[in-house]
Give the backbone structure.
Amino acid sequence: MRDILRRGRLSSDVEEGTAKFTSSPEVDEWIFESVVLVDRAHVVMLSEQNIISKDDCSILLKALDSIKKEGMAGINLAYEDVHMALESKLIESVGEEVGGRMHTAKSRNDEVAACIRIALRGELLGLMHELIELRQVLIRLAEGHTETIMPGFTHLQHAQPTTFAHHLIAYVDALERDFDRLCDAYARVNLCPLGAAAFASTGFSIDRERTAQLLGFDDIVENSMDAVSTRDFSIECMSAFSNIMTNLSRIAEELILWSTPEFDFIELDDRYASTSSIMPQKKNPDVLELVRAKTGSVHGALMSVLTICKALPYSYNRDLQEVTPHLLKAIAITRSSSRVMAGVVDTMQVKIDVMRDKAEMGFTTATELADTIVRETGVSFRTAHQIVGALARNGGRTLKHIDAISEKVIGKRLSELGLSQKSVDTALDVMSNIKTRKIRGGPAPEETVRMIKIRKGNIAGHIKNLKRKTGKELGVHK
Ligand code: ARG
């Protein structure tokens, strides 16, 4: 049989090399199950609307079932795409009189958009699971390190002491926002474009809400021209993936640095490390380096899609096919990166003593000393900043040193104004630095314990929501 698509309008098959050029087999495979689902829902709706007969409907559904069972292996990729391959197979198996009715009131344009949305929402739910797991691993680790003192950095220079838990909660909060962004995107992905047909909808009295409902969509994409033309839902998801990858790359970079002898804060588990082919002593953080690098690939994919969609005239253009491989690549990378990151963090060894020893290096308590001077003597913060700055430069740390400097700066000794050696000692103690920072969001153990509790509650809530979404989505696939 000649190609059911070309036999009317075109006199020949497509040139062989060109067929490859216009096809997109990896996407076809990705959406294969969704194509079957969409065809099934469409056929059921057509029959309910008396557009096709009940008998034809059951023949078509049976044929679609066996096509699904055979899977991609039964699909002839010589056709223009999976939609044509599947319809051709259906017609071959049940004949054109019945099989030829399936495409009534449907175009590949609304079908492919629906299929991408179905496949994508499944991936989004998978990624949400993976992000939850990573957040759980991080929060568990934080729970054990609310009193683990470490240096905090600005400009990658020792800045102020903090705790490892405080640092880890920063990661958790970034990933929680990423999770929220995925949920927001999900709401705009889970809308059904079916019924838009080519773009101008159809004169058949189809029921768009019914197909949407059968496929587990929350609603339809109303304007039929918009429905087939837009890929902004993909762009939105890829922006969220890009953000996730940026966050993962920052964690990766810190873990890479922390596993060097210069920092020596952590040791990666051997399962997540590599070695050198020539230098036998090497233990390398290749996994984390690849997370860092793959971030670039996801950002690149987003840029590609934005550029493909830019200035595209309405409605459907084949350009839109070129969007999907980038989407697919971006989601696959983001999901695998989230998974490996959870493994790395869950298995790494934390060197508490090294962190503690390095927490004081670089006069990290200087801010607290300046604050103490303000509180005890009443001089302005800027004056205290100057005095402690000079102290940092000169190297002294006692009240005597401070007095010598303040005499030069303000003509008075701070001890005369009420500064005691005891309060200087307290200011210079890293743990008391941390304990005084107990305001909301600060590193004091009591505050990080409170933050951990809230985050655990948020994670539990997200797991519940996700179960609800997944249940609905799985109902469709059954
Ligand atoms: N495979 C195409 C895509 O992914 C769908 C086919 C629509 N093609 C067309 N020429 N109208 O966008």
